[in-house]
Amino acid sequence: MRLRRRESLAAYGFLSPWIVGFLVFMAGPMAASFVLSLTDYDVLTSTEFVGGNNYRELLSDSRVRTSMANTLIYTVLHVPLTMAVSLALALVLIRAGRRSAGIFRTIFYVPTVTPKVAVGVLFLLLFNGQVGLVGKVLGFAGVNGPDWTTDGPWIKPGLVLMSLWSLGSTVIIYLAALQNVPRDLYEAAEMDGASPWARFRAVTVPMISGSLFFTLIINTISGVQTFDEVYTAFYGSANQQTYGNDAALFYVVYLFQEAFQFLRMGYASALAWLLFLVIVVITLVQVRLSRRFVYYESE
Amino acid sequence: MLLALVTGCGGGGSDKDDDGGAATLSMQGFATGDETAKTRFDLANAAIAPSKATSSEGSFNAQQFLSAVASGRPPDLVYMERRLLGTYAAKKALMPLTDCVRRENVDTGQFREAALAEATLNGTLYGLPDFFNNRVLMINDAVLRGAGLDPAGFTTADWTTLTGTATRLTALKGDKLQRIGFDPKLPEFLPIWARANGAAMVSADGRSAQLTNPDVIEALAYAVSLIKAQGGWSAFKSFRDSFDFFGARNEFAAGQLGAFPMEDFYLNVLAENSPAVKVTVAPFRGVDGQPVNWVTGNAWAIPAKSPHAALACKWIKTMTASDSWIAAAKARAAARSAAGKPFAGVFTGNKRADEVIFRDVVKPSGNPQFDTAVKTILQTQDSGTAEPAMAAGEEFKAAWQNAVNRVLDGKQTPVQALSQAQQEAQTALDRAGS
C-alpha cells in the first residue's frame, strides 16, 4: 500500500510540470477569457460588467454568421480532401522502394515547415486569376480558370486547394499507420481472392482507422481555427486590408479584428468561447461516430 | 486564450542610467531609415541630452502598444497614423498635448491645418504632425500618347469624359486584362471621390457619419462604374494585384496602367525604379474643376502614462520642428546627389519647413517633367483636407470600406451598402462617445 502511494506521489511529481503549465497557460487564461466575455473591456479603460450582452450581440451579428459559415464550409471541404489526398500519397509512397520513399517523404513534408504567412502570399501569386500559375496551367488544358483570389464564390475553393500545400504531416501519419498493417492479413485476403479494392476496404481502412480518426479530429480543429494564411492573403498588408472580401472573413480573423482593430476584447472573448463550444460539439460528434468505425487492436 | 496570451507580449518601458540620471526614452512605431528620419532623430536626441531616445523597429503595432499599456509599462513615445489618434485619445491612452505645447512653446501655427485637425479630438491636440501625404493624379504618358491622348489634358473633373477615357485606355486580350485605363483606387480612395463630389463622409466634429449623403452615394456609384467599364471587379483586382508595384517593371514601366490617383511618395518610387518612364502629375479635380487633395500621415504622441513625459514633449517638439526638417532635407539631398539621383523633397506637415525646403534645398533635377511634378504636389498641399479625429476611427473606416467591397462584389447597391455602413459607423461612434 505504501509502495503504491509512493508511486502515485512520484507520478504526480513527474506530472507536475505539465499540470502547472496547464493551469498557468491554459486553464487560467481560459477562465480569465470567460470572465472577460462578460465585460466591456478595451485594455485601455476600466472594465465594465455587462453580463450576457456580448453573447446576445453575437447572436444578432451578421458578420458572426458570415464568418462562421465561411469557416465551416472551408473545413467541410478541406478536411476530406486533405485526408483523401494524403492517404492516396501515402499508399503510393508505401509501394516505393526504401531509398526513394525517404526522398519522397522529405519532399512531401518540406512544405509543411513553410511559414503559413508565406503560404498566404504564395496563394495570391499562384492563384491570381489573371497571371497566376494555376490559371496558366488550366489555360494549357483549355480551361478558362476563375479569379480565385477576388471572385467571392471561388475564394474558399482556392484556399482549400492551397491548404493541400501543408498535408505533409497527415501523409507521414498515414504512412506510419500503413507500415504497421500486418502483411499476413493481405496475404490471407489475397488467397481468398479479394480484389485490391476489397483488400483496401476490408483490411487497410479498418487497420488504419485509428489514424484516420486522429487526423480527422486534428484537421477539423485546425480548419476551424484557420487564421494565418487567410489573414496574410486578405487582411495582412495595408493594401490587402482595404479589400477584406467577405468570402475570406474566417471566424478567427473576425475575432482578431474585433480584439485588436476595434479593441473590443470582451466581445472578442465571447466570440472565442462560441468557437470553443463549436469545436467541442464537433469533436464530441466525431468521437461518438468513431465508436462505430474505428478499430483498435487492443479491443 | 489568444487575448490572454497577448498580454504577455513585450512592452515599452524606460530606464535610467545608474550614474548620470539620464533617461533612455523608449518608443514604438518608428525606425530610423533614411537621412530624413536619422537626422531629425539625432537632433531630437541632442535636444534632450544627456538623455536619449532609442528607436524601435517596424511600424506601429496595436497589439504591441496595447500589451505595453496593459502591463503598465507604456513607451515614452509613440509614432502612429494620425487617423488612429482619436481612438486611443478617446480611451485616454494618449496624453493631451496642451501642457506640452504651452511648456515647450511649440508653435502650432507652423503645422498644416489639415494635419492638426486629424490630430485633434474634441478640441484637444493629441499628436504633432509628421509627414503630409498628398494624393495626386499620376498619368502614364506613353499609354495616353499611344491612345492619341494628351497627358496634360487628363482630368477627373468631367466624369462622363473620364469614363470614356478610361475605357479607351483599357486593353483586353480575350477576357484577360492587359491594361487598366484608369484605376479609381477603390475601396481605399472613396473619401477623395466623395470630396470630389462635394461631400464629406463625416461631420467636421467627427461625431456624425454622413455616408448616406446622396453625393457620397453618387460618388461611390460612379467610381464603381469605372471599374465595371474596365472588365469588372474580379478581373480588375486580380490584374492590379499582379503589378510589380515597387519594382523596375512596375505598372507604369510595363504599360499596365493609364492613370490613377496616388500618394505623393510614389513619385519617388517611380523615379528610383524606372527613371526613364515619363509620368505626368496633376491635381485630382472635383466635379467643380477645383483641386481636391485628401491627406493623411503620421504623428508623434505621448502615451498617457509615459514615464518621461516632459522629455518626450521636448523630443517630439524637436522632431517636428521646421529647423529639423530642413536639416534632414539637406542631408537627404546630399545623399541623393552623391548617389547621382534626383531629390524630390519631403512633403511635411510643417508648412514653414516646406517653404524653405522647396525654395532652398530642392534643386532642378535636370528632368523638367519630374520638377513639374514636384511643383504640382507642392501646390496641391494647400488644398489638402483630412478627416477629423474620431473616437471610433477604425470602426468608421471598416464600415465604409466593407460597404465599398459589398458593392464591388455585386452583393449590394451603393444605397444599400452605405445605409448599412451608416448604421454600423454611427453605432460605433456613439458607443465610443465621439
Kindly describe this structure.
The complex is a heterodimer of chains A (299) and B (434). Chain A has 299 residues and is mainly α. Chain A has one domain: MetI-like (MetI-like fold, Orthogonal Bundle). Chain A has helices at residues 2-36, 53-60, 62-95, 98-109, 116-126, 133-140, 152-163, 168-179, 183-191, 196-207, 209-224, 228-236, 238-241, 251-261, 265-293; strands spanning 39-40, 48-49. Chain A has a two-stranded antiparallel ribbon. Chain B has 434 residues and is of the alpha/beta class. Chain B has 2 domains: 23-133 and 295-381, D-Maltodextrin-Binding Protein, domain 2, CATH 3.40.190.10; 135-294 and 392-432, Periplasmic binding protein-like II (D-Maltodextrin-Binding Protein, domain 2, 3-Layer(aba) Sandwich), CATH 3.40.190.10. Chain B has a 7-stranded mixed β-sheet. The two termini of chain B are 31 Å apart. Mean pLDDT of chain B is 89; it is low at 1-19. Chains A and B meet through α1, α14 and α15 of A and α1, α3, α11 and α17 of B.
In short:
Chain A has 299 residues and is mainly α. In chain A, 74% of the residues lie in helices and 1% in strands. The relative contact order of chain A is 0.13.
SSE layout and pairings?
The complex is a heterodimer of chains A (299) and B (434).
Chain A: H1 2-36, E1 39-40, E2 48-49, H2 53-60, H3 62-95, H4 98-109, H5 116-126, H6 133-140, H7 152-163, H8 168-179, H9 183-191, H10 196-207, H11 209-224, H12 228-236, H13 238-241, H14 251-261, H15 265-293
Antiparallel strand pairs in A: 1-2
Helix pairs in contact in A: 2-15, 3-7, 3-8, 3-11, 3-14, 5-12, 11-15, 14-15
Chain B: H1 2-6, E1 15-16, E2 23-25, E3 27-28, H2 35-47, E4 52-53, H3 62-70, E5 77-81, H4 82-90, H5 98-103, H6 113-118, E6 120-121, E7 124-125, E8 128-129, E9 135-140, H7 141-146, H8 159-169, E10 171-173, E11 176-182, H9 190-196, H10 214-228, H11 233-241, E12 257-263, H12 265-273, E13 279-285, E14 291-294, E15 298-301, H13 309-319, H14 322-338, H15 351-361, H16 368-381, E16 384-385, H17 393-408, H18 414-432
Parallel strand pairs in B: 2-4, 3-5, 11-12, 14-16
Antiparallel strand pairs in B: 1-2, 5-15, 6-7, 8-15, 9-12, 9-13, 10-11, 13-14
